[in-house]
Amino acid sequence: SIIRMDGVTMVQEDGSYRGMLFHLQDVTDIRRLERMRSEFVANVSHELKTPLAAVKGFTETLLVGGVSDEKTARSFLQIIYDESERLNRLIGDILELSKIESKRIQMDYSPIHLSSFFDTITEMMRAVAEKKRITLDVDVSEELFLEGDEDKLRQIFVNLISNSVNYTQEGGKVEVTAREIPGGDNQDDMIEIVVKDSGIGIPKKDLPRIFERFYRVDKARSRGSGGTGLGLSIVKHLVEQHHGRISVDSEVGVGSSFMIELPILQEMNEM
Ligand code: ADP
C-alpha cells in the first residue's frame, strides 16, 4: 500500500506549540488509477500517431512529386484513405469507451426476442462471412427472451462475431448458441450466449489480458483486419452494464469460445 501522510503543526492562541496533527490516507487505489490513466493516454497517443505518420509520409511523397506513375500514386492514395479510416475508427472507439467508463451512458431496456435479434445480426454479418466462405450458424430457441438495451447488445454481439470472422481462416465456422440457466434461491435467472469459432485461437498466456484496452495478440494481424484493440474492452463494459459476465476459452489452432451470461430481468438490479 502507498500511504500519504500530511502533518499540520498546531499552535495555541498565544503562539506556543501545542502539537502535531497527522492525517494518514491510503492512496494505493488513487495512485493505481492515476497510473492507468497516464498509461492510457500514452497508448492512445501512440495508436493515433501510427496512422497519422503514414498519412503524412505518403502525402509528402506525393506533394514533392516523388511518384511519376499513376498506378503507384493511386496505391499511395489508397493507403492514405485506409489510414484515415483507421483514425476515424480509433477516435470513435476511444470516445465510446470513455463514455461507457465514465458511466455517462443511459441504459434503455426492453424485452428482446433472442432468435429474431440474432437473425438481424447474422443478416448484417452474412456478407463479410461469405467473403471468407465462413459458415455462420445460429442455434437459438424461439422461446428465449431477455431484458436488455438492444443497441448495446447488438454492439456486443456484432463485435464478438466480427472478431470470430476476422480471426478464423477461410472455410471455417462461427456458431452462436443460447440457453437458459435457472437461478438458485438468491440468484437471477440468466441466459448464457456462446459465440464459438474454429479460428486461430488465443495463446493461454494472452487470455487473461485480451479484455484490456489496446491489448492484441498479434498487432500486425489486428491492424491488417482493421482492428483497434478496443473492441473487447467495450464489449466487457457493455456486458457489465447489463449486470452480466463474460469469459473466454480458447485453444491455439482449434478455436475460441466467448461466453456471455446476462440476467433475464433487469429491473431487480436497477433498484
Ligand atoms: P481488435 O480490434 O484487435 O480485434 P479486440 O479488443 O476486439 O481488438 O480483441 C483483442 C485481441 O484479442 C485481438 O487483437 C486478437 O488478438 C484477440 N482476439 C479477439 N477475438 C478473437 C477470436 N475470436 N479469435 C482469436 N483471437 C481473438
TrEMBL record:
Which residues of the parent protein does this chain contain?
Answer: 329 to 599 of 599
Source lineage: Bacteria, Bacillati, Bacillota, Bacilli, Bacillales
Domain of life where this protein originates: Bacteria
- Annotated localization: Cell membrane
**What's the protein called, per UniProt?**
histidine kinase
| Domain Histidine kinase, chain residue ranges per copy | 43-266
